[in-house]
Structures are given as structure tokens and as C-alpha cells.
Amino acid sequence: MMDFFISYTNADKDWAEWIAWQLEAAGYTTIIQAWDFRPGQRFIESMQQAITSSERTIAVLSDAYLSATYTHAEWQDAFARDPRGLHGMLLPVRVKSCQPTGLMRQLVYIDIVELDEKAATNTLLAGINRGRAKPSASPRFPGAASQTPVAKPGFPGPIALNNPFQMAGALPANAKSYVKRQGDTELVTLIEDKPLIVLYGEYEIGKSSLLVQAYSILQSKRGWRVIIQDVGRIRPDNERIFIDEFFSLISGVLGPVRTWEELMIGLREQGLILLLDEFGALSPEVANAFLPRLHWLAEESRRSLRVVVTIPEPIRTFLRSRHVTNPKFSRGWASVRLTSLDAQGIDTLMRLLPEPAYEIAVRHRSTVFELSRDIRARFNVYALIFLTKCSPESRKINSLA
What digits encode the pLDDT tens for the residues 23-81? Predict the structure, then answer.
């Protein structure tokens, strides 16, 4: 039995993933569609399994969530199991300004709207606690001025750009904890003359971070405009909305574009590099409508268009999984396979650890390499925190964690 199922709508995917990460970092287990529903699975069966195998449900509240149709079934199951709210089976977390109605209005929600990351993390973890909300230190005396100290929060503040404990996700272009790999050079080289490029590798191996680095470099390329987009955020499950959002994205750079033909005309005047992250989020419906036209456009405009997509598997495997059966759409792709950092790269990241965390990590080197998948995948040493917390020496770095 998992601790939490995270119910959300695609518009709030970034919030849902952030919440899931905080919970798992605190020792809870979660099920979240973005991480646990994999290609080839049946969506309805996966959703049913997720709901019934989780003790509690977190509803990520926003106007988009409240107006969505399918989310009602997700949270109403938890409500039905605990209609009086005695066991906290349904925990709404408000992430954007909205006003719940109906049954949802009866529930007290965890409100993290407009909080910074430190305050939001504290509020979230305090809200899911089934115990009383009694503070760990005496409240400030409400009468005359008091010098009673308040308890120091035990959570880190907002993550700085160069914090070596940066959580999963794409690192900023200027993050010192980014370590280049062979794929960096291969990608920038291929963009010079290849219209279609697929960047593939395991989940969380660092594809998004590499795209961010490439975007930073390519912006200075004369005669070219560069767009970077996580396609998972523009309704990859709805053909009409996805295509409309795609053209809207292009229009912001090339001027009004409503059709593929208009886009091809625009490319006669302006070079365009499209960095399309999370391309694996495309549903079969959207993939069959979008990929053939994108392939056609890249072939017809090969001098002025570059398309880079990120997926977890080779392009042929991806196309088969999306039922794109015409073999011509698998041709013409240049491939960059992103692999894990080598030992030297791990060394570079470990040196970012402040003392005495670095000393502990070095002494536990074998354990570090057992965790190397996490470390390599996230381009940082966040996983080392868990190693050092498990160590008898962990008291030395509590203030760093």
C-alpha cells in the first residue's frame, strides 16, 4: 500500500511533481501519473490501480483541476472512503488561487499559494501529518514584548541556482553542478546540418538539462531563432489543443502562423531551431497527427529548420509504441544517446559538497556508487544527502540538509 496518490490535471503537472518529490524526500511513498504511468500501460487500469493501492489521495487544487472532468472520479473515490474526513483520506493542496465548490468546499485544504519554497514545503509536510498541529516550541507570549525564541525550521530554504542539492529536473544554464558529457558536443555538432535529431536515454538521465545548455549556446547562433518547450505541458493528449498551442508557440517567434504551409513560408525568411523536450508524452492520437507533418516540414525546410526531440528510447521504438507505422517517418533522424556520467564526472559533482558532507561521501564511496544512478541522472549530488543522513555521522551535516 502506497502512502499517497497525487491527483492533478496536466496544467499543474509541475506542482504535482514538486509535491511528490517533497513527500518522497520526507520518507513517504507516492504514485503520480508523470512518473509511474509508462508507455504501453492501459490508462484506466493504471489509474484504478493507483487509486485503490494508495492510502490517501492528494488533490492538486486549481481552477483547471476543479473544472476538469476526469479528476472528479479520482478524488471522489477517496471522499467516499472517508466522507466525514476523520482519517484524512482526501487532502486538497491549493497551488493556485481558486474557490472550491460542492463537496470539495467542505474540506480544509493545505494552502501553499504565493508561499516561497521553504514555507510551502513546511506547510505541505505539516498539513499531511495526522497528528495535532501543536508547535514544537512555545508560542510567542501574546502580551508584553517577549524574547521567547521560536523553533528554527528544519527544512532548507529556497534552492539556489548552484546549490549541489538541486532536485530533479532541468538545471539552469549557469548551474555549476552541470557536468558536460559526450552528448553535449554531439548534439551541438549535429544541429549544424541535420534537420531531425532525437536525443534519447533513460528517464531522468539528464536530457532536459542538456537541452537547457544547448538553448543557452544556440541563442547566439546568427540567423536562427531558438524555441525550447516541454511538450508535456501543452496537452499532448488532445490533438486539436496541442496543434493550436504549437502554432501559437511558433507565432511568438515568426509572427502569425496557423498552418504548416504558413510555417514553411515563414522559414524561408528565418531559421528556426525547435528543442522539444518530453516528446515521449505524446499520445498515439497526437503523435499520428503531428509527427508526419513535422517530419515533412523538416525535410522540405532542411536548410532553415532544426528539430530536436527528447524521448527515453530509440526513435523506431518510440514510433511503434505510438502506432506510427509508416516506415518513412523513422528515416532521416540523427541520434544522440545520452549515457550516465563516468567516475570522473561523479568526482566533479562530489566536490561540490560542503564539508563535512564531502568527507562522509568519500568514506562511503562504495555506497555512493550504488546510488550512482540517482546521482548521475540528476546531474547533481542530491542523492548524497540520503546517504549522509543514513550515516552515523549525519549529525554533522544536519544543518546542510
Answer: 988 888 899 988 888 777 677 777 888 888 888 999 999 988 888 877 887 888 888 88
CATH number of the 182-337 domain: 3.40.50.300
- 397, 390 Cβ separation under 8 angstroms: no
Alpha carbon distance 378, 206 (integer Å): 6
CATH of 2-128, one of 2.60.120.10, 3.40.50.10140, 3.40.50.300, 1.10.8.60: 3.40.50.10140
SS (H, E, C) the chain: CEEEEEECCHHHHHHHHHHHHHHHHCCCCEEEHHHHCCCCCCHHHHHHHHHHCEEEEEEEECHHHHHCCCHHHHHHHHHHHCCCCCCCCEEEEECCCCCCCHHHHCCCCEECCCCCHHHHHHHHHHHHCCCCCCCCCCCCCCCCCCCCCCCCCCCCCCCCCCCCCCCCCCCCCCCCCCCCCHHHHHHHHHCCCCCEEEEECCCCCCHHHHHHHHHHHHCCCCCEEEEEEEHHHCCCCCHHHHHHHHHHHHHHHHCCCCCHHHHHHHCCCCEEEEEEECHHHCCHHHHHHHHHHHHHHHHHCCCCEEEEEEECCCHHHHHHHCCCCCHHHHCCEEEEECCCCCHHHHHHHHCCCCCCHHHHHHHCHHHHHHCHHHHHHCCCCHHHHHHHHHCHHHHHHCCCC
Q: Are 96 and 48 in contact (CB under 8 A)?
A: no
User: What is the reported pTM?
Assistant: 0.52
User: Could you tell me where in the chain the CATH 3.40.50.300 domains are found?
Assistant: 182-337
- Hey, CA dihedral for 18, 23, 24, 25, is it positive or negative? positive
